[in-house]
Each structure stands twice: as C-alpha cells, then as structure tokens.
Design brief:
By secondary structure, this protein is an alpha+beta fold. It has two domains: 6-219, Cytochrome Bc1 Complex, Chain A, domain 1 (2-Layer Sandwich), CATH 3.30.830.10; 240-490, Cytochrome Bc1 Complex, Chain A, domain 1 (2-Layer Sandwich). It has helices at residues 54-63, 72-79, 106-118, 124-145, 147-159, 173-178, 181-191, 209-216, 268-279, 287-294, 341-358, 362-379, 383-396, 400-407, 413-423, 438-446, 462-471, and strands at residues 6-10, 21-27, 33-40, 87-90, 95-102, 197-203, 240-245, 251-259, 302-305, 327-336, 430-435, 483-487. A six-stranded mixed beta sheet has the order 1-2-6-3-5-4, sandwiched between helices. It has a six-stranded mixed beta sheet with strand order 9-10-8-11-7-12, with helices on both faces. A hairpin with a 4-residue loop joins strand 4 and strand 5. The longest helix is centred in the first third of the chain and has 22 residues, at 124-145. The radius of gyration is 24 Å and the shape is globular.
Length: 494
C-alpha cells in the first residue's frame, strides 16, 4: 500500500525563493535504507535542430562521468564500500539520477550524488567515452541486435515526424557527431536549473536531512531557458507501413497512433483498463497474448499500452519519473516468424477492432478490473519505487496508483467502452515491421492478398482454423504509396 508522500518546497537563499526546489519526502522510519532521486525535467524538446542527442549526452556527463573532485573511476571506487550505485536513465521529457544506500552511509553517498550534479568534471576523456557509447547504442545495438526496440523507435519516427519525440532520446548519428564538449557545458548551464528539478528522499532518513540535502542545490541557477511547448503530432488518414529491412530470424512488429490523453485526464483510466484487457506488459491474461501466443504459438508476447512504456530492469513494471507530456496508443508484437507476420498484424487489428466495435466483454472487464486492483499493489514494492510514484504524482498532478484504486471499484464496462470508442482507432494506424523478407510482405499487403498463418505443428483446433480464415483476409486498406521500405542502417542518421 502506498504511504503518504509529503511534497514541499525549500528556499535556502534569497535567490532560491525565485525558484524553490520541489522536494518529495516519503518517510519510512523502520527502513534502514534511504533512496535519493533527482529528476530534471529536461529533454529532447530543449535541443536545437542539428544537435539531436545533446540532452542525454549532457545528462550522461552528470550520471556516468567524473566530478571536479574525482574521476569516474574514483567515484565508482568511493561507492563500492557503501554497496551503492548511482543510477542514471531518461526519456523524452526527464532525466533521473538516483541511488539507495544504508542510512549509515547516507551523508557520504549524498555528497557523491550532489557532486555529480553540481560539480561535473566535463573532461575530454569522459566526453569522448559517453559520446562514443551513444553512437554505438544507435549504430551497433539498436540497429544491430535490438529489433524490438528498433521497431518501437522506428514507430516513433512515424507517429512524431518533425517532433522532438520523433527520434531516439540517445539522438541521431549526425546530431551526436556535431555535438561538442562546449555544447554540453552550455546545455548544462541553460537547462539543469532549479526550476527543472524535483528532489525525492525516501526511507529511514534522519530528521532534517531532506531539507539539508535540498539546500545543496541552491548552487544551481534558479532558472534557465524556458521549457518549450510541444506542438501536437501530425495527423494522417489511413494505414501507413514502414518496413525496416535487416537480417533476422523473426519480424518485430509495432503499431499505434497518437493519443490526446495522459494521466491527468479522466479518460486515461478506463483506457488503461482496455489496454490491460488487450495485453498487459509481460503477463498472460491479455486477449492478444491468448490469441497470438497461446492459441497459435506465434511468438513470446503481445502487449498494448496507452502511454509510453520503458521496462524497469528485468521486472514487468515501468520505469518511473519519465512521464511524457504527450502519449500514444501502441501494440507491440514480439518477433513472429516472417511467414506469419502478415497474419499477426491482421490478428492484432482484428482483436482491437472487436474491442472498439463490440466493447469489452463483461466478464473480461470484471477479470481485468480485479487483476489491476491487485496488480497495482506490486508496482511500488520498495521505497525506491514508492518514491518514484510519489514524484510522478507531483509531475502529473495525479497518483496513478491511488487513482486506479479509487476509480476501479466504481468503473463500469460502459465507461471503458465509451473511452475506447472516443480515443482508439485502427483506421489511422502506423505499422512498423522489422526483419527479413519485408519486401515480400509489403508486396502481398499492397496487392490486397491474404496473409495466412503458417503452423509448424498439426492438430490446431477446428474453431481456431475457422477464425484463421477470417483473419487472413481481414481488410488492410493501404495504398502502395503508404508502404515505405528502408534499410535499418539508414534509420536515425539525421
């Protein structure tokens, strides 16, 4: 159960009063551990054209590089006897620096973490390393052996063309190559400021520690460049396909469309139930998982989302503190055999259309609601994740766990059906397929031909085979001009 978090502001000097530090405190007196989080609301929208990736490059110089007191190697050596780490991650609108430590080592750890932000070393050696890491992440990892994320990032280029969300947070090859150490220093000075910062402290910390820790950051400028407003994503009519060609054993598939709903909106919560009904991340109760994996054995997993999802480590849960200001609906089909990729696309659209047209079945609604009422209790299992959700509530204005617990018991099937019909559609989807044989798939779809499933085993039940006959011909109204084929090696160049 979530414990109450206390949100306060601190002003440790006259200038600080112009931009007080937002401080989220979550006391857990019985815990010997303390978690510290620093969330900077900085992201790709703050980058200038031609410098794509500068935001994360700058954040990496704070989270994965040395300080004026210590080299990065010396920082790691100082952390080792504390059994502590400084974790760094980010997305389009925020970067997070965090760590958990035993309270006996709290002062020392807090000093190290504060130094990372307040006294970055900005050495040529660190810059060269983190810049090369970012380039390798795009050109070698993403393009080379991470087909699932490649599909999701390629989908973003369609959903958010000409938009700050339309390229990886890591950046583009051209943007990273153009970035200099002086660019990083200027970006840090202009954007890593107190008005962009939210501090979080959770656990068995001593009285007075949160305010004292927050006071350290009065050394940051009160304000920098104003946060840029986001234009809405470009709209389009009809289906669009992006076929990303590269050697692979399976085809990774992502599809979706922008949403004008976030956690701030009442409709988000029934939409969340609908997405869970279609396919909760890495669980087995979703309709897509049942239809594509369990009935037909085509892949490992099939999920749906009504907000951007980045998995936290090896868990089934999302990272916290990186909420986007704009969101999208997405279906993710983990790789399927190329010979059945067209069928899997049609199957996902068929099941989503059924949800939109017929509504969520009463039994399915009740089962999903009951599942979520219990599942949300697992999202904040420890002090670090509890603090993460408390900070998310500060950012969004609503606590998703508290909102779901309050809303689900009174929610009805009609609430879900109304929200689904208002906000979800398969008429204007963007669809990405990553892998081998995509040219053949593109030709088949452009010609309006069926895409039958190909089973590797016998004895598929007769009722499944009968449904297969419907799905393999399910309409995919697309013109040849709306099917684009590219090499994976051309993505995210500039």
């Amino acid at each position: 159960m979530m414990l109450a978090a206390f949100v306060a502001t601190t002003a440790s000097s006259a200038s600080a009063a112009d931009s007080p530090t937002r401080l989220v405190r979550l006391p857990l007196p019985s815990s010997p551990l303390v978690t510290l989080r620093l969330v900077f609301q900085v992201g790709t929208s703050d980058e200038k054209p031609g410098k794509e990736g500068l935001a994360e490059l700058t954040a990496s110089m704070l989270g994965e590089a040395g300080t004026t007191k210590r080299t990065w190697s010396e920082v790691l050596d100082a952390l080792y006897p504390m059994a502590a780490e400084i974790h760094f991650y980010g997305d389009k609108d925020a970067f997070v620096f965090s760590g958990t430590v035993h309270r006996d080592n709290l002062d020392a750890f807090a000093g190290l973490l504060a130094d990372q932000i307040l006294s970055p070393r900005f050495s040529v050696e660190d810059f060269t390393r983190v810049k090369q890491d970012a380039l390798d992440a795009i050109t070698k990892t993403l393009r080379g052996n991470d087909d699932e994320n490649l599909g999701k990032q390629a989908l973003a280029t369609m959903l958010y063309a000409g938009h700050p969300y339309g390229y990886p947070t890591r950046g583009t090859v051209a943007g990273l190559e153009a970035a200099t150490l002086d660019d990083v220093k200027r970006f840090y000075a202009d954007h890593f400021t107190r008005d962009r910062l939210i501090l979080g402290v959770a656990g068995g910390y001593p009285e007075g520690f949160p305010a004292a820790f927050a006071a350290r950051f009065s050394a940051l400028p009160a304000r920098g460049e104003a946060r840029v407003s986001l234009a809405p994503p470009q709209s389009h009519k009809g289906l669009r396909f992006l076929m990303v060609e590269k050697p692979s054993r399976g085809n990774a598939i992502s599809m979706g469309h922008p949403l004008d709903v976030t956690r701030r909106d009442d409709d988000f919560y029934p939409l969340f139930v609908a997405a869970s009904y279609l396919g909760e991340h890495r669980t087995f109760n979703g309709v897509l998982m049942l239809a594509i994996r369990q009935k037909r054995g085509l892949n490992y997993g099939d999920y749906a989302y009504v907000e951007n999802f980045i998995q936290s480590g090896w868990s089934t849960f999302p990272l916290t503190n990186i909420p986007r200001r704009q969101q999208h609906f997405e279906i993710w089909l983990r790789p399927v055999p190329p010979k059945s990729a067209g069928f899997a696309i049609r199957e996902a659209i068929y099941e989503t259309d059924k949800l939109i047209r017929e509504g969520i079945p009463q039994k399915g609604f009740e089962a999903t609601r009951e599942f979520l009422l219990n599942y949300v209790n697992l999202w904040a299992q420890d002090g670090s994740r509890r603090l993460g959700y408390a900070i998310d509530a500060e950012i969004n204005g609503k606590d998703i766990i508290a909102e779901l617990k309050a809303r689900l018991p009174a929610m009805s099937k009609a609430d879900v059906d109304r929200a689904v019909r208002k906000h979800l559609s398969t008429a204007n989807l963007d669809i990405v397929v990553v892998g081998a044989h995509v040219k053949e798939l593109a030709a088949t779809i452009a010609a309006g031909k069926p895409t039958p499933v190909v089973y590797d085993t016998k004895d598929t039940p007769a009722e499944v085979l009968a449904e297969d006959q419907i799905i393999e011909k399910y309409p995919l109204p697309v013109s040849p001009g709306d099917i684009n084929i590219v090499s994976a090696n051309t993505l995210f160049e500039k």
